[in-house]
Amino acid sequence: MEMNQDTINFIKEREEKLGAPLLFRTYSTWYGRIGKEEREYGVFLYTDGKTMVYEDFERNPQIMGIPIRQKNKPEYVKLEYSFPISDIKSVTQVTRASAEKSMKLMTDKTQEAAAFGKLFRRLVTKVTLNDGSVIFFELMDHKDFVRKINEYRRTE
Fold first, then answer.
1. Quick one: DSSP state of residue 87?
2. pLDDT surpasses 60 at 32
3. Distance (Å, rounded) from C-alpha 149 to C-alpha 141?
4. CA-to-CA distance for 85 and 100, rounded, in angstroms?
5. pTM of the complete model
6. What pairing do the DSSP bridges indicate for beta strands 134-139 and 24-33?
């Protein structure tokens, strides 16, 4: 996959910030952290194998590539959060509907998605940290994410 110069510069900045090369990166099209924030347009996730970082970017609404002006547009507040991969207690797949319900109720009401749910419902990856924090990511490849996390946890 060929990258343009802006992408190369962006990745270099992130590597400098972490002090190590990025071993894995992906994009989450929806994100939520119980009791905290939610992003409908997603976040960028990346890791050096020790620290997982995610961040979002200001995104102005568009229709067919044409920016839409918004009255009373809420002020954008950048999201950037990180945690050691060693702090991950579990990674499971749950329905997005149950994740959204958990976000509204501000408490985890999810259960691992059953076979039927995996076939017919939108799924998200649920990451539970040792401190009890619950984070949801709608990833393009849940299995690859789990495989990478497990690989990094074994090398600690």
1. G
2. yes
3. 13
4. 24
5. 0.86
6. antiparallel
